[in-house]
Amino acid sequence: MYAGYLTDVPGIKVGHWQDDSAMTGASVIICDQGAVGGVDVRGSAPGTRETDLFQEKKMMDKINSIVLAGGSAFGLDAASGVMKYLEEENIGFDTGICKVPIVASAVIFDLGLGDPKVRPDFQMGYQAAKLASYQENRQGNVGAGAGASVGKILGPDFTMKAGLGSASVQVGDLVVGALVVVNAMGDVFGLDNKKIAGVYDYKNKNFLDTGSIMKEGYKASLQGRNTTIGVVATNADLNKAQANKLAEMAHNAYARRIFPVHTSYDGDTIFSLATGGVQADINLVGILAIEAMEKAIINAIESAQSYKNFKAFTDL
User: Fold this and answer.
1) What pTM value is reported for the model?
2) Contacts with 94 (C-beta within 8 Å, 6 or more apart), sequence order
């Protein structure tokens, strides 16, 4: 396991809530004072909310919360619960009439793992936000990672359990952290490029290769059932253009550790948050974000626990 967590970044709180029997959940990232945000959506099947606000030409310059959730599009409801909690805490954009919390969200498809009729909803989002703290450091089958899985091209009989992972890196006063829910169609590789999760032949006890399966003419029937979603955060001073560049650069971590990735079957998305306080070159921040996200992806695999016939890294 690699060290660190997203909450190592000053000003960032994280909260999780999940239904362990239904294998779904929500993870909430909160910035009480707001943060400059960015986003980059690379997958072709995303489920997202409020991503337009991150564009440089849009007036909103601070984000209050990011919600990562299971439940496919149903899970976007969790963000409404987070809005309710933040309103109660008097956090949000001051309109002069009331404060409107700015909450963005992205979801994964996890309906095939547990109970498809149970999805992250208003109440689950509210509870996750209520539990958010600066000390949160759990990983694996927690929050939005509860129902995550990988290596799905041949269906559930060859799929492995994945989860939520986090990591952080620091250079001087500059801190960059990442949190990710790995729910990819493809295979996942460690920093040594050795495969650590993916399509697994349980009978012969060996990994298969997603790319090779596709080359042999097999066409996946899992449209929209995948997606890796994550957040990178930093205490660097960034403007909106730089925050969007940070999210863009962080996708290099996806490409390094997951293959294939950014396919038409995935909704791969990365948000970025900059709480400020430290002057730093955006290119350095981007490099550190890639490193943190790579390690977070690996932690998501190595910290996952098996569920029924879905084995995890620790079982192999």
Assistant:
1) 0.96
2) none
Whether 5 and 166 have beta carbons less than 8 Å apart is answered as yes
CB 313 within 8 A of CB 177: no
User: Do 301 and 182 meet the contact criterion of CB atoms below 8 Å apart?
Assistant: yes
Q: Which residue has the tokens 């945000």?
A: 37
pLDDT means per 10 residues in the chain (316 residues)? 94 97 97 95 90 87 96 97 97 93 96 92 98 97 97 91 98 98 95 96 94 80 76 98 97 97 90 98 98 98 95 93
132: tokens are: 């958010």
- Give the DSSP letter of residue 125: H
- C-beta atoms surrounding 283 within 10 Å: 12
Parallel, antiparallel or unpaired: strands 174-181 and 229-236:
antiparallel
CA dihedral of residues 111, 250, 46, 99 (deg, nearest 10): 100
Per-residue buried b or exposed e for 154-172, using 16+ beta carbons within 10 Å of the residue's own CB? beeebbbbbbbbbbbbbee
Residue 285's CB is within 10 A of a number of other CB atoms, namely: 29
CA–centroid distance for 92 within its chain: 23
CA contacts within 13 A on the Cβ side of 152: 24
